[in-house]
Amino acid sequence: MQIIFERDSVCAGDDMDAPNNATFDFPDAALLSTVLNAQGPLLGYLPCVHASRTFWRAYIDQTCVAELSFTHDPERQAKVRLLVADTPASCDKIYFNMTAQLPLSH
């Protein structure tokens, strides 16, 4: 099955390429935890913002299904917390809304 990931822009340059989307293939009836796996495609899909951690919410239709945080310092890493039951992702699209960006303290 294919699912479109679409996200908010994080800077003016991002707006030039909007909508910021990509299509990914998943096994049929893949669980939300598989689709939103911190080591899966979202790791390469969400943008890196130098020396900061960005916070996102993932929506299917109008329902917020997960909260995520993402950084690339010292390496690309994401953390995902599902907010709904881990059921098959029966959707065509997941929208990622950036909610905050905080500087990393070194």
Walkthrough of the structure:
The protein has one domain. The longest helix is centred in the N-terminal third of the chain and has 5 residues, at 12-16. A hairpin with a 5-residue loop joins strand 4 and strand 5 (77-82). It has 106 residues and is mainly β. The model has no long low-confidence stretch (mean pLDDT 87). The chain is 12% helix and 44% strand.
For the largest sheet, list the strands in their spatial order: 2-1-6-3-4-5
The proportion of residues forming helix, as a percent range, comes to 10-25%
Mean pLDDT: 87
Outline, from the CA principal axes? globular
User: What is the N-to-C succession of helices and strands?
Assistant: EHEHHEEEE
Number of domains: 1
pLDDT below 50 for ≥5 consecutive residues: which ranges?
A: none
Report the span from N to C terminus: 41 Å
What portion of the residues fall into strands of 2 or more residues?
A: 35-45%
Radius of gyration (Å)? 13 Å
Biggest sheet details:
6 strands, mixed
Number of helices: 3
List how many beta strands DSSP finds: 6
**Helix-strand makeup class:** mainly beta
Features:
six-stranded mixed sheet; mainly beta; globular; 106 residues
